[in-house]
Amino acid sequence: MKRECCSVCLRAKVGCICHLFTEINNEIHVVVLQHPTEVSQTKGTVTLLTNSLTNCDIIIGENFSGNEAFVDLLSRYENDIVLLYPSENAEVIASPETYISDLAVSNSNTLDADEVKEQHSVGCKTRLPKCLILIDGTWKKSYKMYMVNEALHTIPHLTLPDHIQGDYRIRKTQKDQALSSLEACTYALLLLENNAKKYQPLLNSFSQFNDFQLSFKPSN
Q1: Does the predicted model carry a pTM greater than 0.70?
Q2: 58, 49, 59: which is closest to 23 by C-alpha?
Q3: Backbone region of residue 135 per phi and psi (left: phi > 0; alpha: psi in -120 to 50; beta: other values)
Q4: In what order do the strands lie in the sheet with 56-60?
Q5: 3-state class of 115 per DSSP?
Q6: Parallel, antiparallel, or unpaired: how do β-strands 56-60 and 81-84 relate?
Q7: 28, 128 in Cβ contact below 8 A?
């Protein structure tokens, strides 16, 4: 007998995760390039991500060179688009503290803390990209997707600071401190927009998602 599935999250009704969706109005447009094998992966996090961020799209495939949506994306954003990917040339997204410290030094420490934070907020707005691309797949598949899509090599790359700890407890990986697609995207937005309070609910939902998935695991 075929299991009845939720029409929104596309999971079996018993495993529906719609109750974990949390609406967040992200300033930066997020576009997820998702490998086809991840679409029906119940341990995948993109469903929770894309149904929580109000400014988020997903393009499914492996080679996007002839994909109309992808080509239009690159044309629309031109120099305001970045890829979240740890390539050799990727720039580490600085934490707000780093921005504040750099700004204070540039102003010869003549500003008080509130003035520094205010200028940091204004400065970050001018540096924000308008679109953030994310590759969703296993490390091996993500690397292949990156390699076959030469257009991804020509846009700026960003990567997260090493100190960020992940909470992806339901999927094994050979990489230390590996983050899920949801975590990587959320932390990138959090740092770029300098708004931890705004994105914490999504990280909380992700933690609940882990607990929910683990509840289906048979006890020893």
Answers
A1: yes
A2: 49
A3: beta
A4: 56-60, 29-34, 131-136, 81-84, 157-159, 91-92
A5: helix
A6: unpaired
A7: yes
For each successive 10 residues of the chain (220 residues), what is the average pLDDT? 80 89 97 94 89 97 95 93 95 66 38 41 57 95 96 95 78 65 95 93 92 72
Q: Phi and psi dihedrals of 159, rounded to 5?
A: -140, 160
Tokens 């719609």 found at = 18
- List the beta strands (DSSP E) in the chain: 29-34, 56-60, 81-84, 91-92, 131-136, 157-159
Whether the CA torsion 9, 208, 95, 180 is positive or negative: it is: negative
Listed residue (7, 42, 46) closest to 213, CA to CA? 42
Of 219, 185, 177, which Cα lies nearest the Cα of 50?
185
159 three-state secondary structure = strand
How far are the Cα atoms of 76, 106, 190 from residue 132, in angstroms, in the given order? 13, 28, 12
CB 185 within 8 A of CB 134: yes
Residue 46's nearest CA partner among 176, 194, 173, 206 is: 206
Those residues whose C-beta lies under 8 Å from the C-beta of residue 113, and which sit 6 or more positions away, are: none
As a whole number of angstroms, the distance between CA 121 and CA 204 comes to 25
- The candidate with the shortest Cα–Cα distance to 83, out of 1, 151, 140, 180, is 151
In whole angstroms, give the CA distance from residue 50 to residue 69: 17
> What is the pLDDT at residue 81?
96
Q: Which residues contact 99 (CB under 8 A, 6 or more apart)?
A: 120, 123, 124, 194
